[in-house]
Model the fold of this input.
Amino acid sequence: FHPFCFIQDYQNQTQVEQCWVGDANLALADINTEDSNIVSTYNTWIKNLVTTYNVDGLRLDTVKHVRQDFWPDFLSSAGVFAVGEVLDDRYNYTGAYTKVMDTVFNYPEWFNLIKAFLNPQADMGLLSTSVDLTKQNFKNGALSTVSFSENHDNARNPSGIFDPMLIKSIMTWTFGGDGIPTLYYGQEAGYSGGNDPMNREALWFTSYSTDVMYYKFITKLNQARKMALADKTAKFASTPAEVASSTSHHIALSKYPMLTVLTNSGNASANVQWSITNSGFKSGVTLVDVLSDACESVQVASDGSVPVTFKAGAPKVYLPTTSLNSTSVCGTKAQASSGSSSSAQDSAAFHSQAVTSSVILSVLASAFAFFALA
Done:
């Protein structure tokens, strides 16, 4: 182990990597990953673990507490997809770890995401800033991240945000962007536990009901993303998302063929009108809000703008009718719609950004190993 010392200064990377996590009540000894014998043992161990148990991927805890140049050989030995947890709000610091592993949880984005939807007075400009800073500091931008809205280390969002529309909007952001969307168990049930350990409630208390508001909402989000991925005219997985329009209280995130539109005005607000000026869609294209109960549709105006009416602060996810699957959410809308442009025309009409990365992050499989080395 490294010699005993507690981390006193998290700006001191040597302390972060070589001192011990914990406190006087529970000190976690820090393994000396500078020792070549220990490194060799770890590399052999992870290779055997993955092979023996057919592990599909790794979720690596406390990544920043191990030197960065340890990870490439370790992950090469593992030979499977890996996501690392770097709990920090700095984009440049967290983004550096995408150079040594497949992807990381986008913690800096999470901090801004929660702030932006904390209440109707919060600043949605934080999300536009997050998109820009992630592109600047992460290898392949947000394509090399995992997007999340809750986890086991932080209080659940409903413990401090009491408006269900704001909670839904937070969830929607994680499905509409570039990062691999993840959910923490219990979000679908509306669990509201505070800080650890109150945020680790037993799931069986729900009786595993699927007839609850958030479960149904998440089902729609998941179906929407699947339809976007299935659109043969689009390259949804590898096309970087762009902020189409934004104000201090609204944002439209464009990732063809999906247009995610959010507000933090909340469910107590009256109907709010907004025009998305840079939708990227051709005039006349019909877009369907697949999150709305009635599958409400809008038509792109002659100048390419999209008129939006927020009802009680509800989030919106728009897809062109040609992207809708007749067997999925809003499927009847796709069948009933007539006169809309073809898929090829819609794709050509969308002014998408050039793909700067050849890396396409695949959907994570079911068998994952979770562990920490620090």
Notes: Residues 13-237 form a domain with the TIM Barrel fold (CATH 3.20.20.80).
